[in-house]
Design brief:
Largest sheet of chain A: 11 strands, mixed
Oligomer: heterotrimer
Strand order of the largest sheet of chain B: 2-3
Chains: A alpha/beta (503), B mainly alpha (99), C alpha+beta (509)
Helix content of chain A: 25-40%
Structural class of chain A: alpha/beta
Strand order of the largest sheet of chain A: 1-3-2-4-6-5-10-11-9-7-8
Largest sheet of chain B: 2 strands, antiparallel
CATH architecture of chain A: Alpha-Beta Complex
CATH class of chain A: Alpha Beta
CATH topology of the domain at 6-43 in chain B: Histone, subunit A
Shape of chain B: flat
Number of strands of chain A: 11
Number of helices of chain B: 4
Number of helices of chain A: 16
Strand content of chain B: 5-15%
Order of helices and strands of chain B: HHHEHEE
CATH class of the domain at 6-43 in chain B: Mainly Alpha
CATH superfamily of chain A: Amidase signature (AS) domain
Strand content of chain A: 5-15%
Largest interface: A-B, 72 and 56 residues
Number of domains of chain A: 1
Distance between the termini of chain B: 42 Å
Shape of chain A: globular
Order of helices and strands of chain A: HHEHEHEHEHEEHHEHEHHHHEHHEEH
Structural class of chain B: mainly alpha
Radius of gyration of chain B: 22 Å
Helix content of chain B: 25-40%
Amino acid sequence: MSDLTRLSAAELSSALASGEVSSVEATQAHLDRIATVDGDVHAFLHVSDHALDVAADIDRRRAAGEALGPVAGVPLAIKDVLVTTDMPSTSGSKILEGFMSPYDATVVARSRAAGLVPLGKTNMDEFAMGSSTEHSAYGPTRNPWDLDRIPGGSGGGSAAAVAAFEAPLALGSDTGGSIRQPAHVTGTVGMKPTYGGVSRYGAIALASSLDQVGPVARTVLDSALLHDVIAGHDPHDATSLTDRWPSFAEAAREGARGDVLKGLRVGVITELPDSGFQAGVSASFREALDAMQAQGAEIVEISAPHFEYGVAAYYLILPAEASSNLAKFDSVRFGMRVNVPGGTVEDVMAATRDAGFGPEVKRRVILGTYALSAGYYDAYYGSAQKVRTLIQQDFDNAFTQVDVIATPSAPTTAFRLGEKIDDPLQMYLNDVTTIPANLAGVPGISIPSGLAAEDGLPVGIQFLAPVREDARLYRVGAAVEATLVDRWGGPLLDRAPILGGTR
Amino acid sequence: MSEITPDLVRHLGVLARIQLSDEEVEQLTGQLDVIVDNIAKVSQVATADVPATSHPVPLQNVFRPDVPGDMLTVDEVLQNAPDAADGRFRVTAILGEEQ
Amino acid sequence: MAKAKLMDFDKALELFEPVLGFEVHVELNTETKMFSAAGNPANEKNHAAAPNTLVAPVDMGLPGSMPVVNAEAVRSSISLGLALGCSIAPSSRFARKNYFYPDLGKNYQISQYDEPIAFEGQVEIELADGDTVVIPIERAHMEEDAGKLTHMGGATGRIQGAEYSLVDYNRAGVPLVEIVTKPIIGAEHRAPEIAKAYIATIRDIVRGLGISEARMERGNLRCDANVSLRPRVAPGEPTPPLGTRTETKNVNSMRSVERAVRYEIQRQAAILADGGSITQETRHWHEDTGTTSPGRPKSDADDYRYFPEPDLLPVVPSAELIEELRAALPEPPAAHRRRLKAEWGFTDLEFQDVANGGLLAEVEATIAAGASPAAARKWWTGEITRVANSEGREPSELVSPEHVAALQKLVDEGTLTDKLARQVLEGVIAGEGSPQEVVDARGLAVVSDDGALIAAIDEALASQPDVLAKIRDGKVQAAGAVIGAVMKAMKGQADAARVRELILTRAAE
């Protein structure tokens, strides 16, 4: 069997179902791939030592005639923000080094129940704060397209793992773009569900009203297959929706087949002028829109006047909620403890948090503490929550005129490691197109739109849909993907540099 | 426009229980000053007539029945404890309110 | 620590007007906790659970854990709000109160801030002489309790001087309703009494609703007492603003509430009269010394940075639910008391005795277990209260109403005399078992065997031979000495009346 790691999850699923390939073979192939390339890529913080046992069990059950779901036996990478009982969960932080959760995150439990084979935990910006994975306490992950460049963040590990063919599927989390922006810079697919569409139970919280867990893959169909496994109400998460979701895989297949783009009204936002973005990013975005128009879509210019306040509101709400969510890391019940001879427990807490948190985390915790403090609440956190309402209204208005909104997934292609690390504000502006979706709770997907001419690096196009219209994104995403892949003569990732061999 | 001073940053460090070195205080003061200047503009559009959104997708009355479940064993509770004794977590002396 | 100067209470009241306020925390007795499905230690059946055996992930703040609201706790909170005469908020929500403390699993407490579930109510309380006072209620809101800290290594088991502390999260997440009064003005000399009566009334209400065990000694009902003074002014002069208040915690019994309020009035009056000022602070009540001492002065701990809890959704009770709960409310304490008074047939004074001792529920339960009202009252306000006072405990802690009724039954049957019954009670209080078990173990039953009595009588007569002659002579009271001797010989385990009968029969032979 030719390289199993080059198969999509859908292709692997067929091969497993037909008996052509065993899960042990598939899992071994991916573990081998990890061994070959991860020294360079550093997508994984932990590789499972019992993945083959899990795979063998799936094979055994399949051989015994048990009816298994579509993704049973397919390997899965898991962002280290999700707690797992059988592997450490660090959320990219030293303060949680070696932490073993006594319970599995709901999405992990559902993945296991669906027969997915966890390969390991992937790298991320510490506590999901960042856009480049450079803020991981365990060293950065590198973009498989160019090992001197960032893979995006905070979920750079999951995106890089998938882009480097170390796993066909990965779980990620998205608070302000942490699934979508890494997808953009690595030429892969990443989806942020409607807020509440996927359980957050067991996802180490960053900003509770913004966080969502979502799928990371190389194709839209693969992303949909994983999304089908994890979606749905969880009684452990009070904010999870009780809606019954349609099959996203079905929606993706429909999109690839039919005339979804004909008559589709696609909104382009005046206040997110791609003319101000990197030239190659803008060009790729426009090419994708042209391709859609050629298929019968209608491009509509729409105004979202409050989007310009999105980044500001986000960088008030996130730090505020994060400052509260990270208070639990205090040396008492789990995690790092710095001993302070003769010190009170307060001294130990303060010393531990100083040693255990990196600079970006400290920055945001201090900022968040400020935004919530007495006398400042109304001007800062309180005001940001109002901006949220205004942005939701902008979306509501927009969706009366269009079916989906399209934006570039980020202003630039993958920048070099170290390039923006010293300028937090510059780093924050990476999220300008992805943040509004988290503020409003609407779903968003990023799919590859091409390579930027000036640097040959991947560019992604983002689609946004109204709340609960996740299936629409799979239909549209699959249709655009089919169109573009057809134009290119093959997936974008075919053009990625070969790792583990000659460049 | 923003009021970020080293004293304020030190105070925030105390509130957040993060021991900050002088160097950290200085760095943070500068960085936060710039950031806050940038994000303060939210108050321009956040007028009195705009309601605040704390939950992106409105839900209400989400409850759980009063039925036991979900409990950890003592071993699970303590499995990551930096220090424990007698089935309880152990911490150094507390300087605090009388309980 | 130097002993604080106290002004004479009456003098203090002459110069100053006391203003009170109370924050009472009620632990609900639901099956599970407020925000997790772990067993609730404030429910009787979990009361003796070993440390850290009633902990769900969110109670100890495990990464990724999330709260979910207990439906029953919401119902109980609404019922309590209604019983306090409050309006129920059409929409209320939870908020995070952020501060760091080792007993707080997440280092924030989920509470309610600007949208409490109940607000604007009043509670009628009854005082010793039958006067009623209306206490205005500001709000009642839902929140969760914190874990328990045990301080080790120091001399007194208290925080000062402790070497280390142990943390148990069983109590973390227990459902609490916090009831906050508005400032209580006009209490005057009766302030300490009113304090006690208010707490007793809250206790009666929650017990009547069946939503809490409400045992102060177990921490099911906790009271923080706020006291401030303002100077008296001549009529016509404008009312001075409210004085600086202190908040006294660790007030663990009805007795403590009354004493602590009285103490704070006296302490603050002394300071103000000397020209000093009151520090706004939290103080700690010490039952042993009958004093308060300062806690850590409020500093940065004041900034709780409240914000709406993003993991929980608003509580929007339907009108139907509220009416359903309102219809199910038991009669309010004042009406309840009036009915009991009529049923029991006590005099006003007898009834006050019971009510003021906070013993209504105990007497009621004892009567339900079969005793007569008079007997129930006699035991609870008599011997049981006496022992409770001498041991510094609550009467309800000492013995159950069922045991009291059983004890009285033994007296009614003639198995015990009143005097013997008091000994048996002592045994029951000491934990030796039920009244019958104590009687058997200690052999305290009245001897009903005439043979044994006659033998004792004969022995007594042997040393007092002229008694029979005196009785035959008409001096019946001479039997007294023999009765006394027999009772002594029988260690009190004889029915004195029967002994007397037997002696007189003997004399008649």
